[in-house]
Design brief:
With 468 residues, the chain is of the alpha+beta class. The chain is built from 13 helices and 16 strands. The longest helix is centred in the middle third of the chain and has 22 residues.
Length: 468
């Protein structure tokens, strides 16, 4: 499947059988092919390539495609960028690296895989015409047909009218030829979308001190805040990327419940997140690149400060939610949101507290409905089966719950709630709810279900909630 640089220098090539390879080199060390590990390693190399550009895509089966537009000047040109990237990949264990810089991804792929002149090539459009037909990566039968026609290089094909090849091999072949020659372009699809706002700091020497690292991150957060302010937006997701000099990559991501561009708030969350990491941020030999990206942003409208203390209290509550979610995980800090249903056990949905707040009008409606004394504060997730004695009017008189009999003194009901035909049935059918109070002052919310018995007199009763 693959050989390293030393095996290649000994004359071994991918595609040969293991028996033939061992016959030529008895001391050959062979490893079993592991596609999952190979894909994970290629993704790791893609993360390392972020040191030169944020736009990195996987080029199956064993390549990377980088869009370095606007990045070459940071490395004194395209050749310097290629040299830097090659050192990073070799430091990560990639013993055989070939790369090319070209106007289009297809031309760069063809040069890197089929040219055999130097470790890397920079904008050599003349060299691509000397590549073999295999650089077009067409079907095997098409390659055989081209060779039988005496066409051995890309130049032989390019010098002939394209209409001939379109009629014989369809337009996909001529389209591939145009992209390899740089006449047409095809943009890559990066593994991660390009962030809305990105700031970075390249250190003259690798930094190790935690104070210096936080000072650099504070500067980047302030710059990102200025960029967000110019856009009229606030960040919801911030990612800090730390690239170590030995090739290791560290990522720290925080989220906020409301859009913000306040540097103090963001840095407080980063500080809490760094302290809560199970695997500490180990600088090793030092970080030479620190980058901050705003992955998600929303419209942020500045409001005038009022004398209403509730607004300030709400902001402090949201900041507390952000800090707790950063330390303990957003999935562990939850809140209740109203569900669009009248079935009691479905009327509230548990969501992460950082999921955002409801519109003000809907919050008021929900709070008003929650203050209704006809609904209990404590509602059981699963209604408890109880035994009920009724009178001639089929109203409850005595209920037994948890082996304790409660004689009822006050009864209010029934309130009928039916299943929603457009949703999954609850299993209780139509319910008749009663608010009852025992002689010793305990208040219960019970209902009679018509889905548990065919005869009305044999309907089962359930206790669903308790009043304070």
């Amino acid at each position: 499947m693959a050989v390293d640089a030393h095996a290649q220098s000994c004359g071994l090539l991918p595609g040969s059988t293991l028996a033939d390879a061992r016959a030529r080199i008895p001391q050959l060390h062979a490893l079993s092919n592991n596609p999952e590990a190979h894909a994970a390693y290629l993704k790791h190399l893609a993360d390392l390539a972020n040191a030169v550009t944020p736009s990195v895509a996987l080029d199956a089966p064993d390549g990377l495609a980088l869009d370095i537009t606007g990045c070459a000047h940071l490395f004194a040109g395209e050749a310097g960028l290629a040299e830097r990237l090659q050192k990073v990949l070799q430091a990560a264990g990639a013993s055989c690296v070939r790369m090319a810089v070209a106007p289009t991804p297809d031309m760069a792929r063809a040069l890197a895989r089929f040219a055999r002149v130097s470790p890397y090539f920079v904008n050599d459009s003349a060299l691509v015409r000397t590549l073999p037909i295999a650089a077009l990566e067409c079907a095997s039968e098409d390659a055989v047909a081209l060779k039988r026609a005496g066409l051995k290089t890309i130049a032989d094909v390019a010098n002939r009218p394209s209409v001939l090849f379109t009629a014989r091999f369809t337009s996909a072949f001529t389209g591939k030829l145009a992209r390899v020659l740089g006449e047409e372009d095809r943009r890559i699809s990066p593994m991660k979308s390009v962030p809305l706002v990105r700031t970075e700091h390249r250190c003259a020497e690798p930094v190790i001190s935690q104070d210096v690292i936080e000072a650099i991150l504070t500067l980047l957060v302030a710059k990102a805040g200025d960029a967000l302010h110019a856009r009229g937006e606030g960040g919801r997701t911030f990612e800090a990327l730390f690239l170590r000099s030995d090739g290791a990559v560290r990522r720290v991501c925080i989220e906020t419940s409301l859009p913000t561009r306040d540097a103090d708030v963001v840095m407080r969350l980063f500080h809490d997140r760094l302290n809560a990491l199970v695997d500490p941020l180990d600088p090793g030999f030092g970080f030479d690149v620190i980058r901050l990206a705003v992955l998600c942003a929303e419209r942020c409208i500045e409001s005038q400060t009022t004398l209403d203390a509730r607004a300030e209290q709400d902001d402090q509550t949201m900041q507390l939610i952000d800090r707790l979610s950063t330390v303990f995980g957003s999935e562990n800090i939850t809140r209740l949101r109203p569900g669009d249903t009248h079935i009691p056990e479905r009327a509230q949905v548990i969501v992460p507290a950082m999921a955002g707040s409801l519109p003000q009008s809907r919050c008021k409606d929900w709070i008003a409905s929650g203050s209704d004394s006809s609904r209990p504060i404590l509602l059981y997730r699963q209604p408890h089966a109880i035994e009920v004695e009724t009178d001639t009017k089929e109203e409850p008189v005595v209920l037994r719950w948890r082996r304790v009999a409660h004689r009822l003194g006050a009864i209010n009901g029934p309130e009928r709630i039916a299943d929603e035909w457009w949703c999954t049935p609850s299993g209780y059918g139509t319910r008749d709810y009663f608010r009852v109070e025992s002689e010793n002052g305990q208040r219960f919310w019970i209902f009679r279900s018509d889905a548990t018995a065919a005869v009305p007199s044999q309907r089962k009763w359930f206790l669903h909630g308790l009043f304070p």
